Amino acid sequence: MRLVLGIFMFFKSSRNLSGRRADGFFAISTFIISAILVASTVPLNAKDAVNSSVYYSQEQYERLFILSNTEFTLLHEIAHVLIWELKPPVFGSEEDAADTIAVMAQMMLPVKAGEHSEIEKLQAVADGWKLEWQLVQEEEIDNAYWDLHSLEIQRYYNIACLVYGADPANRAEIVQAAELPTDRAESCHEEYALAKRAMDWLLTKLSPESTDGPRTKRGITTVQYARNNTLEGEKIDKWLRESGIAERLAEAMTRRFDLPRDIVISFESCPFPNAAWNAELAKIQFCHSLLNRFLYLARELSRERNVSVDKTIWHASTNIDPTNVVDSGSRSVEQSAP
Where are the domains of the chain? Predict the structure, then answer.
């Protein structure tokens, strides 16, 4: 499998819009290599699944990982939509701002009965970035310090810091589990507080109620699915449709924001494992090959977790520090959710 990965990462790489690595010849060979990558990663049997009460089978972890990363990626691209269409003030990198919005939104989204907690979801996202970084280092690919996106390992620590900073009193174990250095961990509560104030501003100032004068037509966000013909695409497509993640976020965009035009979230076939906001087409394009990449990463992580479960799982309470909860007199958490 490492030989196949070496073939995949051999060519000089560049970053695509989602921030995940893609080689220059991938447009020609992506389907073949993706098929080999997934096929060469044999699923663990149920008896070999992660030794934790949180994950009951290999397939359940794969589903958690794919859907969590899909949700985060969609939220990241939705952040780009809001920045481009509604033009809020942004200090610093737009990509870092989009990441922060995505993390905060994923923590604020209401969790339905039977769903995984926000901590489980965000650990799946963070672990994906950490693994991407490890693969880059193993293949000795030059780091793209010049890129618009932060490095994969920085995105990992940024997520871990915000998750811990949301409730340090009940999430102290995350510091050790995520190997978050003390120098960074000490400031995570302040980082979270800054991000939450910005998020509250975004949800308040950019809501339809805050606009001056009536708008004749509010932009509607819809979801489109092209058939996923990639290896195991039918299974992934089934998980995605059943979860209703894209539809929920599309409905939230329409309800929460006064968008000037219609937006489409499109799951489609494209040559790179990528997701991107296309302002010209008013479309969030989510590639099937990125979903396959998530499946590959999930299977790699399952092996790693099976070796050292206690060290890698973020055991923590999902309760938020009362000082961080929005006043019941203003908005509930569900109302505040994107």
Answer: 2-41+56-211+291-317
